[in-house]
Design goal:
By secondary structure, this protein is an all-alpha fold. It has six helices and no strands. The protein has helices at 2-29, 39-52, 55-58, 68-86, 110-113, 117-123.
Amino acid sequence: MRRLIFAFGICFLVVLAVGACYAAWMIHRGFTTRMPPGAIETSLAASMRNAAFPSKYKFMRNPVTVTSDILNEGMEHWADHCSPCHANNGSGDTMYGKTMYPRPLDMRRKESQDMSDGRTLLHHPERHHA
């Protein structure tokens, strides 16, 4: 039993030391949006973001019927509200987008296209017109 406690203690100290080294490295390099985040930071942020979405939003779909007027309204909204960060083509490659953290989604990617309307609503609550 003592060996097991000792082994857990050693593992805990190793994890604590690695975490402290990572924190020291982060503080040394500084916090900036000019460099992409590391793999650990990206993984933790994605996991926390996914866990934060209530399940009712994960499968929510837009109840509005698509018409030519609605599409025109959507294109005007995109040009006025979305393109400064996401770009007209949806790439996120804009002057503003390059300096944001997290970076704006590339709306052309499959992961973005497969996102539910409810999840999009959580990203941009000002779009909700109740």
